[in-house]
Amino acid sequence: MLVTEKVAIDHGLNKEEFKKICDSLKRIPNITELGIFSAMWNEHCSYKSSRLHLKNLPTKGKKVIQGPGENAGVIDIEDDDAIVFKIESHNHPSFIEPYQGAATGVGGIMRDVFTMGARPIANLNSIHFGSPQNKKTKNLLRGVVRGIGGYGNCMGVPTIAGQTSFDESYNGNILVNAMTLGLVKKNKIFYSKAAGLNKPVIYVGSKTGRDGIHGSSMASAIFDEKVEEKKPTVQVGDPFTEKLLLEACLELMAGDSIIAIQDMGAAGLTSSSIEMASKGKLGIKLNLNKVPCRELKMTPYEIMLSESQERMLIVLENGEENKAKKIFDKWNLDFAVIGKTTNSKKIELYFNEEKVVDIPVNILVENSPIYNRKWKKTKLPKKNKFKKEDFKNLKITNVLNKMLSNSNICSKEWIWQQYDHTVMADTIQKPGGDAGVVRIHGTNKAVAASVDSSATYCYAHPLTGGKQIVCESWRNLISVGAKPIAITNCLNFGSPEKEENMGEFVECVQGLGEASKYLNFPVVSGNVSFYNQTKDKGIKPTPSIGGVGLIKNYKKMITMDFKTIDNLVLVIGKTEGHLDQSIFARDILNEKNGPPPEINLFNEKNNGESVLSLIEKNYVKSIHDISLGGIMVAVAKMCIKGKKGIKLKKPNYLINQFEYLFGEDQARYIIEIEKENFDKIKEILNKSSIHYDMLGILTESDIFIDSKSKVTIDELIASNTSWLTNYMSK
Amino acid sequence: MNSSVIIFPGSNCDRDMDVALKKFGFKNKMVWHNDSKLPKSDLVVLPGGFSYGDYLRCGSMASKSKIIESVINFAKSGGLLMGICNGFQILTESGLLPGILLRNKYSEFICKNVFVKINNTENSYFKNIKKETLELHIAHNEGNYFCSNNQMKEIEDSNQIALFYCNKNGEISEKFNPNGASKNIAGIFNKEKNILGMMPHPERMIENYLSGEDGSLFFENLINNLQ
What is the pTM of this model? Predict the structure, then answer.
């Protein structure tokens, strides 16, 4: 096939990019070479629109062993142990084929983690669907949940936490973000940087098929009416093979045979081989006839662009081939020596004894395009002034029941019951809490992880929204008794070619950078997913933040269920009654405008650290951070979990009861304490100038909101648990 | 007491079982599916997981693996053989236990705590156990026990039902059946009661900090019975 400008454009490259390719090669590329350029230079692989902004994120810290740029980030959790973790999107494929799209998303992120030598110990996910009324939503949700479960369950890795939201902006573009944590010894971390000349390059895992060709290019374009036709670009997952690959790789990694290892993810053999060569400042020479293929007559173009799953590329020490092959034979996996490292600094591919590709690596990597896209700032919206009449006809108990059954607040048990969350027998906090917690096997330590996003806030004001999610992640970790260490981010946005969407990206990134810097909560890995857009309509900006923290003594882990009758309940942090962009304002008052709650990083840090020290001193019996739905929803959830009631005190504030109970001000927690410790706790809080309110006292089974309003626990449980189950069984 | 846990490709509860057995005093060995000889054992365990990726039918490929012949001989000579979850499926597929495990009634994977009532205590597994009803954990997609009417009659006549799904108070009813299993069956024995297959995972319930501690009761009782 003759390569022309039109062919290049069909490959998703633009005129200037095609010219740049021809100029740097000093010739027109052949079709295989063009395919390689299109895979390496698409948005998904090259980060051409985002690189400029991502470099401002804080990525270093005392606990950071490896920041962004490798397969995943690595943090130190003491005693020679390290946690490898990352979150990644698989949005476009999951909309087209929800089961396989979600399953391979989970498979891909686990591979990123065990490529670095770590055994995966926990999975999380953040999934976002269109409005429940949209006719596609139910099937997409069912398929995605089955896909995530199908892959993770088979791998034997517990899925310990997650987040699910519904919003009409995802009607045409759902989001599936998968996160994995792995455990590794600090001195046994593997990297993707090749080193040494004439070292054998090994292909292991599944055979290569025609599935997923141009998958990463699909993820770099918007959807149109013909989206269904893209089904062949979705990969098909086989978790059984991945489980074998995991065990085989870890077995090989126990020795010293591996110089570098890289999984074949987006853009398959192309990006894995080029990345290894580029990081090692080497060349790589491959004989494509040696690549194990699943289908007949595959062309070099197809072999290089296939996104078949469960494959790895390894650079071995010379002479270690037999030892390695034995291990892969034992696990019934393909093993082939397909090439070697060279000093040419070029990628040279041979097929049927003919050189079919010859490209200097630096043209593909360092010379890849980088864009300073135009972007538009979002002004802070004006605050709404709510009047007494706005609340006049509302009965607080009805409002509470309605809020608890809201699709974004209700119990997601229907989802997480389909995930094996207890395999590996170290899960000490299951899904449904503020964060999932797994023990570090055989030690007293545990790691906590949570995943969060707040598209509504980010849409209203990206800068504030960006800060808010980092703070929420930090609070969720503290709320299980963990010291927050670092985050990974998955940045889901619309088209970067639209100024509004690019602006949302730039300002969200700026916000999350500011917050993570202030909280000393650095970003160690991540991924950007642009073009979550159908025709003209992009999704609300949805950065997902995966936070990880350490609990030094797992017996000090803490949960949100109220524990003991007669204990006191405090609100830590000041309540201003901010209703704009709250679930209450949007769904009860039907007011969608206004700014998100303000973020005060000083209060966030101060309140969080003080709460953590109260937990350390065993003063806190249960805790929950206050987020969607404000104080009232947080308290109700603690009541539901602990099957206890509460008698609320009348707040001595001048603000309205609805504003007090449903406002979504930040930096707040609800804690349960014993009466006899109250004075000591007061002293600690006063010393750090932390505002607190006495919210109430725990009772047997009823919730007394005020003298006229009472609800029973059973009523709350019914409101909270029935929505999703009913929705899915209809 | 010596125990062996068989590892098939795709097993994923093998380590958890190893940890549990050792915690309660077994000297445990891990045995690879492709070996032909079992080490000297007082108990052999087929662990949970997705042996051979559940391809063909759950447990069916594993029931043909190399080690199975010696496992069958071990059980036929009276040795204690226990299959948990996928291990239970392997036991029915290899014909050591009657019946089959179908897809869960609502076709969804279920991971949660359940209660099971012990039906028969005249065997090495449950003799002297301190509770009638245990809280254990299930995590499976195919736990819906089914067998023919004739088989069911035989199972009942020979008192082969080991565990029923029930509520906290031991009440057995369809309401407490998580997966549609016939007669709420959560586990069965062979006629001789030396082979036990069950869907719940006692190995995930061996600590207060995990899902609960009734698994500890099970293992403690088991090793006491063997000593």
Answer: 0.96
Continuous segment of H or E residues that includes residue A128: strand A119-129
| pLDDT tens for each residue of A684-724 | 999 999 999 999 999 998 999 998 999 999 999 999 999 99
Give B210's contacts in chain A (Cβ within 8 Å).
422, 425-428
Kindly give the parts of chain A with pLDDT less than 50.
none
Nearest to B10 among A146, A240, A426 (CB): A240
B174: tokens are 């369809």
- What length is written for chain B? 227
* Phi and psi angles of residue A465, each rounded to the nearest 5 degrees, phi first: -60, -40
**Residue A609 and residue A667 in contact, taking contact as beta carbons nearer than 8 Å:** no
Q: Which of B16, B112, B209 sits opposite A417 (nearest CB)?
A: B112
Most distant CA pair in chain B, distance: 45
A228-A232-A233 Cα angle (round to 5)? 95
Closest chain B C-alpha to A347 CA, distance in angstroms: 36
A419/B109 touch (CB, cutoff 8 Å), yes or no: yes
Residues of A catalogued as catalytic: 44, 90
> Cα A634–A582–A596 angle (5° rounding)?
120
Choose, from B13, B85, B147, B166, the residue flagged as catalytic.
B85
Nearest residue to A671 via CA among A696, A653, A652 = A696
- Enumerate the residues of chain B whose CB falls inside 8 A of the CB of residue A149: 109
What is the full DSSP assignment across A215-242?
Answer: HHHHTTS-B-GGGGGGGGGS----HHHH
CB of A546 within 8 Å of a chain B CB? The answer is: no
Yes or no: say if A120 and A273 are a contact pair by the CB < 8 Å rule: no
Q: Any idea how long chain A is?
A: 730
Give the Cα separation of A637 and B74 in Å (integer): 52
Give tens-digit pLDDT for B124-152: 999 999 999 999 999 999 999 999 999 99
